[in-house]
Write a structure and sequence with these properties.
This protein has 10 helices and 8 strands. It has about 450 residues and is of the alpha+beta class.
């Protein structure tokens, strides 16, 4: 019976050794799933960039700090309550009006203080912190708008680099097919060896262009990945269809409309106007230094010769204080400095408006040129395709040479590349116009 069990175990072991390799072989024959690179839309890239960008995180933290400053300024209107307890010991008698303690004194009390009038200083300080908060928010808006423009530009460059790769690879395939046709004619003794060599050389001269275009695509993807915080070693593609891009016949916006919108939305102009208001408040705060300060405090406490509240001498004191400065040369100097800052801010605002006007005019010109380039290359593409087809027929009939094929192929490549570049130039100029206006 024991031998039978041993034999069964041995047979099971042999069977498993035979079956397992067969299962592994069958599994290896199964088709492996194809891993497709992730397709990123422009909206996804913008979300990733805003989420991962360190500069945006820094600006958001500064907004949070500015919000804390506003809360601190509001707390200045509230009363403050403090306490204090002291224990004095000495080897000599302690004297004070009304009582005498031998060598020990314990005192404790609570003081509540409330500012009644500060010459408007508390209100000015609150207004100042609120304006500083608005400036921090505008700084965050500015950083986001610049990041959005940078991401759009990088995204469109990736798309353009991909299209250039497609153009160069298509050209190489076309010339490779031309080589095959010349090879057939050479074998049939209807084409010379020189024709074959010339076709091969012309095809091979395109290989570096294909490699260069592929390298440019890799670099463009790396730049976009770095900008949005995407893993550098993870493959991806961008999603953009030319058919979905609507190119207008002309630019409907006028320079006056752009400047009017920028005057309301541009973060730099908002910040300068807020800074002008800050300068005005700082001037008022310095002038408030000559105004009286009125305060009230309530003190409740007592004194004893022991640490405890037995035989405690308790008392309360209500105090009103008023004070102010009659003259302070430093205040006068600060007032003049604040007024000079107001004038400086006005000069800076005029300078920014001039720069915005220049940027707006450049954006409008770029949009107009891009539209014309798109139209011109659209008309050239069909013509270049037909010319290439007719040239190939003429070559097959011995009426044209490989150089004619190269010229026709180059004309098609230039038309396609010019068209794609026009699309990207238009989209980039459109994004730049949003940045000029200050549109979120």
């Amino acid at each position: 019976m024991g031998y039978k069990k041993i034999f069964n175990c041995f047979a099971l072991l042999i069977a498993s050794l035979i079956i397992m390799p067969l299962q592994a072989l069958a599994a290896s024959d199964e088709p492996q799933p194809v891993v497709h690179p992730e397709v990123l839309s422009l909206e996804q890239c913008l979300d990733l960039a805003i989420k991962n960008n360190k500069q945006i995180q820094e600006k958001e933290k500064k907004v949070t700090i500015a919000e804390g400053k506003v809360k601190e300024a509001k707390a200045g209107f509230l009363p403050t309550v403090a306490y204090q307890a002291t224990l004095d010991k000495s080897n000599i008698e302690q004297y004070q009006v009304g009582m005498s303690l031998e060598d020990q004194k314990f005192s404790a009390g609570i003081v509540a203080t409330l500012p009644l009038y500060t010459g408007g200083m508390l209100n000015y300080n609150l207004d100042l912190t609120k304006l500083q908060l608005e400036i921090a928010k505008e700084d965050l808006r500015k950083a986001k708008q610049q990041l959005i423009y940078d991401v759009k530009q990088a995204y469109y460059n990736v798309w353009l680099a991909g299209k250039v790769v497609q153009v160069q690879e298509a050209s190489y395939r076309n010339l490779d097919q031309h080589v095959n046709r010349v090879q057939i004619r050479y074998n049939a003794e209807t084409a010379s060896r020189l024709d074959l060599m010339r076709a091969q050389v012309q095809r091979d001269t395109l290989k570096p262009k294909v490699i260069n275009a592929q390298n440019q695509l890799v670099l463009a993807k790396l730049q976009l990945a770095t900008l949005i915080g995407y893993p550098k070693d993870q493959a991806y593609q961008v999603q953009a269809e030319v058919s979905e891009i609507i190119i207008p016949d002309s630019i409907n916006l006028s320079l006056e409309e752009i400047l009017k919108a920028a005057d309301q939305e541009r973060p730099e102009l908002r910040q300068l106007r807020q800074k002008k208001e800050i300068d005005r408040i700082l001037t008022a705060m310095e002038e408030a230094g000559y105004k009286p300060n009125l305060g009230m405090s309530l003190t409740f406490g007592g004194i004893n010769d022991e640490v405890g509240f037995n035989d405690w001498y308790a008392a309360w004191i209500l105090t009103f204080t008023v004070g102010g400065k009659i003259y302070d040369g430093k205040i006068n100097a600060c007032i003049q400095q604040a007024k000079d800052n107001e004038s400086l801010t006005g000069i800076q605002e005029a300078n920014v408006q001039d720069l915005i006007r220049l940027e707006a005019e450049q954006s409008l010109q770029n949009l107009t040129v891009s539209i014309e380039n798109i139209r011109a290359n659209q008309a050239s593409i069909d013509l270049a395709k037909e010319a290439l087809r007719m040239t190939q027929i003429r070559v097959d009939n011995g009426m044209a040479t490989t150089m004619d094929i190269m010229d026709a192929q180059l004309a098609l490549d230039q038309a396609l590349t010019g068209y794609y570049q026009g699309i990207v130039s238009y989209l980039t100029a459109e994004a730049k116009l949003d940045l000029v206006i200050g549109r979120d």
